[in-house]
Amino acid sequence: MQTSVEIAGGKVQSPSLLLSNRARLRQRIAAVLGNGFLLAVTSFSMLAVLFIFIFIARDALPFFQHNGLREFFTSTHWYPSAGEPEFGALAMFFGSAIVTFGAILVAVPLGIAAAVCLSDVIPFALRQFVKPIIEMLAAIPSVAYGFFALVVFAPLLQQQGGHLLAVAVWIIGLPSAVLVIIVLSDVAGDRLSDRFQSWARWGIIIILGSGALFGLMVIGKSLSALRIASGTNAFNVSIILGIMALPTIVSVSEDALQSVGRELREGSYALGATRAETIVKIVLPAARSGILAAVILGVMRAIGETMVVWMASGNASQIPQPWYNMLDPVRTLTATIAGDMGEADQVTGSSRYHVLFAMAFCLLVFSFVCNLVSERFIRRSRQKAGG
Amino acid sequence: MKKIIAATTAAMLMGIGAATAGDANKIVVDGSTTVGPIAKAFAEYYMGKHPDVNITVSESGSGNGAKSLINAACDVATMSRPMKNSEKDAAKSAGVLPIEHIVAMDGIAMVVHESNPLQGLTIEQIRDVYTGKITNWKELGGPDRPIVAISRDTNSGTYETFETMVMKNAKIAGKTEYVGSNGAIRQRVLSTEGAIGYVGLAFREGVKALKVNGIEATPETVVAKTYPIARPLYMYTNGRPKQDTPLYDFITLSDSPEGKKIIEDTGFVPVK
Which ipTM did the prediction report? Predict the structure, then answer.
C-alpha cells in the first residue's frame, strides 16, 4: 500500500488511506467468509455433541421400548448371551459408583492438599517446577496404568495385601490422630484456669494418644491377617483411578486458590492470622466453588475411564457382599460397553446391541449434568475472584 | 470392530453382485467366531502367496455360516459344530451339497495356580465352581482358600465353547471375573493362588492344567476325542472342491505343515 502524506502547505492528502470500492468489497467478502468459516467450525463441534446425543439416544431407545426400564435398573443378572438373555445393569451402575467413590476418596484429600502446598506453601520457583511434573500424570496413557494395575499391583495385593493395608492405615491414621489430639488438648486447655492448664493438656494428650495408638494397633493387626483372594478388585481400581484423577484436581483447584488473590491473604496476615489460619479460614472458603468444580471434573475422569477398569476391576457383575467391601471384584458400565461390543450384533440390532447404548446414554447424561454443574461452579469462582 | 469391517466387506461384495460365490479367484468365508481366527490366518497366509486371490472372512456365528452356504452367499461356511439335519435338508432343497472338512480340534484346558495340589476335576465340579455352588478349594479336596473363578469375555469363541460344553444351560455366577484374552487368563492364574480359569491348549505354560474326568489335556487326547472339553472345528463347502483351485488349496491348507503351524499359533490343535 502506498501512502503519501503531504504536509507542505498544510494540505493533507492521503488517497490510499481510503480504500477503492473494489478493495472494500474484497475486504467485506473476506471478512464474511472468515467469520462464516469460524462460525462453521464452532458450530461443527457443537453439532458433534448434539449428534452424539441423538445417535446414542436413537440406539438406546429401542432397548427401553423392548425390555422396559425395570430389569435394566433393578436386576443384577447380566447374561446377554444366554438363550433367554437377561440385561440387569444394576451391578454395573453400582460398580461404576463405588469405583468412582473410591477414586474420589483417594484423589480429593491428596489433590487439595497438593494444591494448597503448591499455591501457598512452597516457593514460587519450586512450584513452577513441581506443577508440570504432577500434570505429567495426565499424559500417561490409561493402558499403561491398567497394565501396572493388572501385572504389578494386583499380585502385590494378593501376596502382601493385608500388610499393605495395615501400613496405609498407620500412615493415614497416625498424623490425623496427632492433629486431632493437639487441637482437642488446646481447646480443652483453654477452658481451664492457668494452674491446671499444662497438667490437663498433658493428661489429655496421654489418654487420647494411648487410646489412638491402641486403636491403630488393633486395626493394623486385624488388617495384617487379612488375605485378599483376588487382586483385581474395586480397591485396586480405586487407587489407580484416584492417581489418574489427581492431576485434574490439583491443577484446577490450584488455579482456584491462585485466583483468590493477594489482597485477601495479606489482609488476613495483617489481622494477625497465622499461615495455617489464613489457608483454612480464608483461602480455602474463598476458593470453594473452584475446588468443587475440580472435584467434579475428577469424578468425570474416574467414571469415564475404561481401559483400567476393564483390565483390573475383575469385571464380575455383582454387588459385593457387604456392599462396601472394596476387596471384591466389580464391573463398571464403561468396561461392559468395551467388553461386550464385539459380539453385539449391529446388523440385526438385537437387544444385546441396544443395551450397550442404553448404558452409554446413562453415562452421557451423567457426565453432561456433571459438566453443567462444574461449569456453573467455575463461573461462580471467576465472578468471585473478579468482583 | 473386526466384525463390523468383515460385515461391511461382505455387504460390499454382495453389492457388487456376481462376484461372491462362483468366481474362482474369490473366496468368501462366513460363520463361527471360533473358527474365524483360523480362517483369517489361512486367508492372510494364502493371499500373501497368491496376491491375485481375494479371500474375505466374516464371523457371524455357526448358524449364519450354514445359512450363507445354503443361500450361496459364501463359498466356505466355518462352523464350531456339525451341521444339523434340518440345515442339511434345507441345503438339499436349495441344490447345495454340504461337504464336511475338519480343520482343527478345539480343546480347552482348565488351569490353576502351580501351588494348587489338586490334580483333576470332573465336568460337574467345574460347572459347580462356575455357578458359584462351590466357593472354596477345600470343598474339592484342596487347601482352605477361596476360589477365584475367571472366565473369558462373552465375545470369545473360547467362552462359547466353555458355555456349551461345560456349563450346558447353567448360568455363570455373578462373582466370576471376566478378562479379555487367553493371555490375560494365564496372567491372572499365574499370579493368583486361588484362581481357576480356562484357556486354549496353547496357553498352558507356567500354569497347571487340570485333568478333566481323569484325562489330561494334551493335543493327543484332544485329537483322540478322549478329553471331554474338546470338539472338532469344521469348514463346509458346496460339493467337493476341484483340485488345483484356490478353494481346494484353502480347504486343504490345514493338512500342510504351514497350515498346522498356523493352527497351533491360533491356539488350536491340528487334526493329524
Answer: 0.76
> What is the DSSP code (8-state) at residue B270?
E
User: For the ranges B19-33, B38-52, B130-144, which has the lowest average pLDDT?
Assistant: B19-33
Angle between the N-to-C axes of helices A333-340 and A90-116, in degrees from 0 to 180, rounded to the nearest 10: 120
The C-alpha cell at B109 is 484346558
Q: What is the mean pLDDT of residues A113-135?
A: 90
Cis peptide before A329 (omega within 30 of 0): no
Contact A230 B193 (CB under 8 A): no
Contacts of B187 in chain A (CB under 8 A): 150-151
User: Residue A63 belongs to a domain with what CATH number?
Assistant: 1.10.3720.10
Of B33, B171, B174, the CB nearest to A318: B174
Q: With the C-alpha atoms ordered A370, A371, A375, A381, is the resulting torsion angle positive or negative?
A: positive
Distances (CA, A) of A24 to A10, A13, A38, A58: 28, 20, 21, 48
Number of domains in chain A: 2
Ranges of each domain in chain B: 2-105+233-270, 106-223
Tell me what the mean pLDDT of segment B27-35 comes to. Answer: 85
Residues A275 and A356 in one domain: yes
Q: How many CA atoms lie within 13 A of A323 on its CB side?
A: 8
Query: How is domain B106-223 classified at the architecture level of CATH?
Result: 3-Layer(aba) Sandwich (3.40)
Higher-confidence position of B128 and A70: B128
Give me the mean pLDDT over the A103-123 stretch: 92
Predicted confidence (pLDDT) at residue A39 exceeds the cutoff of 90: yes
Structural domain boundaries, residue A345: 57-157+231-386
Q: Does B192 touch chain A (CB under 8 A)?
A: yes
Option in A158, A318, A341 nearest B191 (CB): A158
Q: How confident is residue B86, by pLDDT bands cut at 50, 70 and 90?
A: confident
Identify the residue among B137, B153, B190 best suited for mutation to test binding to A, counting A beta carbons within 10 A and taking the highest: B153
| Residues A314, B177: C-beta atoms closer than 8 Å | yes
pLDDT in tens, A177-187: 888 888 887 77
Partners of residue B59 in chain A, C-beta under 8 Å: none
Segment A249-301, tens digit of pLDDT: 999 999 999 988 889 999 999 999 888 888 888 899 989 888 998 999 999 98
Is B229 within 8 Å of B235 (Cβ atoms)? Answer: no
CATH 3.40.190.10 fits B2-105+233-270, yes or no: yes
Cα distance between residue A325 and residue B203, in whole Å: 33
Residues of chain B with Cβ-Cβ distance to A83 below 8 Å are 169
pLDDT for B159: 84
CA A196 to chain centre: 48
- What are the grid coordinates assigned to B158, written together? 473360547
Residue A164 lies in a domain: no
CA distances to A160, A328, A346 from A228, in Å: 9, 9, 40
Question: Under 8 Å CB-to-CB from A283, ≥6 apart: which residues?
Answer: A116, A119, A120, A257, A260, A264, A265
Shortest CA gap A102–chain B (Å): 20
Separation between Cα atoms, residue B134 and residue B251, nearest integer Å: 44
Q: Percent helix, strand, coil in chain A (nearest 5)?
A: 80, 0, 20
Domains B2-105+233-270 and B106-223 share a fold: yes
